[in-house]
Design goal:
The protein has about 160 residues and is an alpha+beta fold. About 45% of the residues lie in helices and about 15% in strands. The strands form two sheets. A three-stranded antiparallel sheet has the order 1-5-4. A two-stranded antiparallel sheet has the order 2-3. Helix 1 runs antiparallel to helix 2 and helix 3 crosses helix 4. It is globular and about 50 Å long. The two termini are about 30 Å apart.
Length: about 160
């Protein structure tokens, strides 16, 4: 769930982690709070829209934190879609793995899929491991990239794109 979806859930009166409706007395349901949340959502949407006519646009930070997929999409848009976001995502993850910021664990939750985790080095730059709840109420392990982690990735894009996986 990206930040826009997170705030939209709150603005609509739902806990973004559990999907439960807020109680009628909850401060987050106050009309003025909901108006401000909707304004913030609109500002975030504007910040994430880009024209595709110029190469090398500034790459914005998705504040305050995000998963790798939406961040890779933003980088793809900023780079004039020179690469698909999945290629960018793969390059970033492989770089972070070899740079010691992430590691894979095959045994997590007895899943056949590899799960990514932040290392101690990754945590130092703002990559964190979080347990989130999906819309169906299931727990899910998520790696989250703070503003600092996003800045680290942006600062290392040249290395990341020169890097052979």
């Amino acid at each position: 769930m990206d930040n826009i979806e997170f705030l939209t859930n709150i603005a609509n009166g739902f806990n973004p982690y559990t999907g439960e409706k807020f109680s009628d007395s909850d401060m987050l349901l106050a009309p003025k709070v909901q108006e401000r949340l909707i304004e913030l959502i609109e500002e975030l949407k504007k910040d994430c829209e880009y024209e595709k006519s110029s190469y090398g646009k500034p790459i914005p930070i998705i504040a305050p934190s995000t998963t790798i997929q939406p961040f890779a999409k933003v980088i793809s848009n900023a780079l004039y879609n020179a690469y698909t976001f999945s290629v960018i995502q793969s390059k970033i993850l492989n770089y972070l793995l070899d740079d010691g910021k992430l590691y894979f664990d095959y045994e997590y939750e007895t899943s056949d899929r590899m799960k990514k985790f932040a290392t101690e080095e990754g945590e130092k730059i703002g990559i964190t491991n979080e347990i989130t709840i999906d819309p169906y109420g299931r727990k899910k392990h998520t790696v989250v990239y703070s503003v600092e982690a996003q800045e680290y990735i942006i600062d290392n894009l040249v290395k990341i794109f020169k890097y052979d996986n």
